[in-house]
Design goal:
This protein is an alpha+beta fold. It contains 4 helices and 16 strands. The model has no long low-confidence stretch (mean pLDDT 97). Bound molecules: the ligand N[C@@H](CCC[C@H](N)C(=O)O)C(=O)O.
Length: 272
């Protein structure tokens, strides 16, 4: 790992370490360990997740390996996917229109300078109006899988929403086991506008943005008759993600800004 080049990128405030391993020099078995060590803030590079680009076995431009900060592997990540697409284009691994292989299927992407649009897999497992009892209080939530599992909780006051405490209780609630869930607290702003805060599985805390969470929130709000496509979603960083979809939800897109922050070499001590 020593002397390996990494890139730090942020997708609307969701930050990632990216490594080009198209030549397959790294040991795949160590990817979870690298994620766990490198994503530690203060002690290492620090990020919400680690993304490793490798050649695709199927008919895509590349295959990615995505790990959360705790070293767990996730099937998909909307903001990470937008970062990976932009990096692959910047490194001339792909053209402006590209595809990449994930555990959630092949994702299509389009890069236009710092704006990246992804087509996500059609959502699955929609489960509306779930009644949860947590410490003698009842909550009505909604579940959807937009590549990864998300639970949506509609709130009126997002500033006062107990994202960490209630988010963690919902994330680990028996109803969602064994996979667990990400939890999005959602406020409806208008027919085409939402604001969200997300508790992320695998980061085990609030992140500044979540792409699959933005998509999940927009689709659940659409199913409840609260919004129509396109939906602009304000995330915790203050940035706006755009989600648009066909009425049947067979085509779902996520668009937003991506920044390349820096490029560097991993030092041995970053893994200590
Ligand atoms: N931040 C991501 C989602 C990353 C995966 C998630 N933490 C999980 O384990 O399900 C996004 O932008 O979609």
């Amino acid at each position: 790992m020593k002397n390996i080049t990494f890139y730090k990128m942020t997708g609307s405030g969701n930050d990632f370490i990216l490594i080009d391993d198209m030549k397959k020099v790294l040991d795949k078995k160590q990817f979870p360990f690298f994620a766990h060590k490198l994503c530690r803030r203060t002690w290492s590079v620090g990020a919400d997740g680690l993304i490793i680009l490798r050649p695709s076995d199927k008919k895509a431009d590349f295959k990615w390996y995505f790990y959360n900060a705790d070293g767990s592997e996730a099937e998909m990540c909307g903001n990470g996917g937008r970062c990976a697409a932009r990096l692959a284009h910047l490194l001339s691994i792909t053209g402006q229109k590209l595809s990449f292989e994930t555990k959630a299927g092949i994702i299509q992407a389009e890069v236009e300078q710092n704006l990246v649009k992804l087509q996500l897999p059609p959502p699955t497992d929609l489960d509306m109006n779930i009644k949860l009892t947590i410490e003698n209080s009842s909550y009505t939530v909604h579940f959807i899988n937009t590549g990864v599992p998300h639970t949506i909780f509609l709130v009126k006051d997002l500033e006062k929403a107990p994202v960490l405490s209630l988010g963690r209780k919902i994330r680990f609630h028996s109803y969602f086991q064994p996979a667990g869930t990400n939890v999005d607290f959602v406020k409806v702003l208008s027919e085409n506008g939402l604001e969200i805060r997300t508790y992320e599985r695998g980061v085990e805390g609030e992140t500044l943005a979540c792409g699959t969470g933005a998509v999940a929130s927009a689709i659940v709000a659409y199913k409840l008759g609260l919004v129509a496509s396109p939906v602009k979603i304000k995330v915790r960083s203050g940035e706006i993600l755009e989600v648009f979809f066909s009425p049947t939800l067979k085509e779902v897109f996520l668009k937003g800004e991506v920044r390349l922050v820096c490029k560097g070499k991993i030092c041995e001590e970053a893994l200590k």
